[in-house]
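Below is how a single chain appears once it has passed through the pipeline. First comes the sequence as given, then the structure the pipeline wrote out for it. We keep one example in the README because the format questions we get most often are answered faster by looking than by reading.
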Amino acid sequence: MKFLAVTDLHCSDINQSGTDKDSTGSIVKLKRILSVNLSGCDFIMNLGDTADYNGGKPQSELLSDIFGVFKSSGKPFYSIIGNHDTSIDKNEYIRLLYCPGRYYSFDCCGFKCIVIDSSINDISKPFPETEIQWDNCNVDPCQLDWLKSELRGSKTPVLVFTHAPLMMKEWDVENPHLIKNRREIIEIIENSGKVKAVFSGHYHNGCMGVRYGIPHIVFGSAGKYGPDTFAVVEVSEDRLIIEGHGLNESAEFNI
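Resulting structure:
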């Protein structure tokens, strides 16, 4: 399996002063990235924070623009709901980016890919009324039950995708970017014996860590000023290869 990963585009038509976001340039970068780096890729994974609401062009229009770029690539593409994407109703995000749901799974090349919605502040309200706080990401109980079921029923190895990460370089650290109830999630993942790697965004500088043989890859933001940031990922039965660009490091793991 081979896929291109991009995250945290933070697309907008107004650049936000006092931040490192190149909001108006991110869609130009995305077009450039997809135009020359998709050879041999089975799909594109967009790990969330796709567009920002900041008083410029309506967020729904920005998401439609991004959808058009992904669709014109000619490759299958999948998206995750990021914390900034909750400025509009999650169902609207799902509709505009043609997601199967707020969380979902799909099969590709002998792997099951599981997409998790971590953009929740209050686990009793998975569909928030306003944009959530970026430093209080959680996964709701209904979704945890679904994750257990998906892993239990999978006949193939599994890759997990989520906007907010489960760990940074190390496990035992406190960082506001991490999912708050990550211990529950990682216990489910590790006990299954089926998950080969976990991929996330949210932390704009990117990082990598390994826990009990499972690589946790946090991709850097494509929406920051600077070089084009993305990764091309190859996964085989026993090997994970990250070809990093921009803020993303290249690396290889036995899995």
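DSSP finds five helices and twelve strands in the chain.

See the next section for the split statistics.
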